[in-house]
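Task: sequence design from structure.
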């Protein structure tokens, strides 16, 4: 059985002091959780301090982005080695805000994944269609292109270190989540792409998160779907009680209950 993984993407929120305040409450609230991997992804400036605060706890540290070069004249960028240096274990790559606002391409996403893997970071690779693409029946086409583009030249072994997050753009920050059926359909499709290209074993172990307006009230039904293995959470990861509520309702007993 795949272990659920719940990650909080704090986006561009919280100073170092605010981040430390949140993480101290989270470590206390979630200290007994063993059956799910918990990841938090603060802003770059808070990574070092938050990394120290979660040290020894069951919460892992992730970043929200990286650049593929190790170092050099790349003003404003940060490398995989620098993220490792502050004890990051995960990194979100290809979030729709990076793709849509900062014009990241599938090729950029692929280069970032390779740099992350090279440095021993676990990429959380985001894919998902926009509203107009869903309305014009292009969801599978878009997801196919994004998954293929992201994973080009990778091996089945590389896949063991990757998490994919299916995040329909129309569900992010809108309060309207994909229905469990809509999400399951795309998750199963992603798993099939992986099986066809990397083999059944790689597909069986791959964890696929759903992201888009996840709350404590909808996670149990989402995670009860056979191909949904966790969640990437934006807004609700900024409040202790909301994020903790999601994690508690995502624990395997809920999956087994279905
Ligand atoms: C996200 O940005 O990855 C996300 C899923 O946001 P929200 O949970 O706020 O919809």
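Answer:
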């Amino acid at each position: 059985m795949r272990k659920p993984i719940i990650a909080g993407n704090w986006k561009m929120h919280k100073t170092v002091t605010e981040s430390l305040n949140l993480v101290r409450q989270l470590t206390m609230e979630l200290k007994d959780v063993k059956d799910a991997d918990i990841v938090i992804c603060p802003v770059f400036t808070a990574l070092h301090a938050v990394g120290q605060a979660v040290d020894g706890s069951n919460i892992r540290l992730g970043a929200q982005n990286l650049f593929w070069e190790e170092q050099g004249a790349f003003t404003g960028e940060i490398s995989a080695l620098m993220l490792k240096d502050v004890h990051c274990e995960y990194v979100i790559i290809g979030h729709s805000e990076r793709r849509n606002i900062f014009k990241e391409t599938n090729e950029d996403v692929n280069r970032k994944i390779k740099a992350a893997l090279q440095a021993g970071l676990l990429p959380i690779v985001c894919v998902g269609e926009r509203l107009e693409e869903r309305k014009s029946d292009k969801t599978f086409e878009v997801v196919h292109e994004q998954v293929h583009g992201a994973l080009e030249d990778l091996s089945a072994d590389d896949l063991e270190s990757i998490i994919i997050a299916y995040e329909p753009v129309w569900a992010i920050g809108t309060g309207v989540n994909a229905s469990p059926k809509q999400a399951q359909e795309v998750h199963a499709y992603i798993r099939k792409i992986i099986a066809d290209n990397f083999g059944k074993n790689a597909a069986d172990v791959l964890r696929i998160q759903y992201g888009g307006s996840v709350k404590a009230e909808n996670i149990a039904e989402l995670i009860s779907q056979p191909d949904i293995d966790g969640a990437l959470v934006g807004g609700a990861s900024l409040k202790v009680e909301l994020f903790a509520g999601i994690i508690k309702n995502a624990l395997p007993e809920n999956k087994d209950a279905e």
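DSSP finds 13 helices and eight strands in the chain.
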